[in-house]
Fold:
Amino acid sequence: MNCLPKLRFKEFTDEWEEKKLGNNGHFYSAGTPLSSNKDYYSGNMAL
Structure:
């Protein structure tokens, strides 16, 4: 199986190594606060 990409840096000559994202870092997801919570939606915003 040839795992060499078509475009790569000349310094890299080895085949690609497949890994799962979870093994390489921590990932988090967040959401928008409820618009009913006015603590998040008060004040002025500079544009």
Q: What stands out?
A: The CA atoms of residues 41 and 47 lie 15 Å apart. The mean pLDDT is 78. DSSP finds no helices and no strands in the chain. The two ends are 53 Å apart (CA to CA).
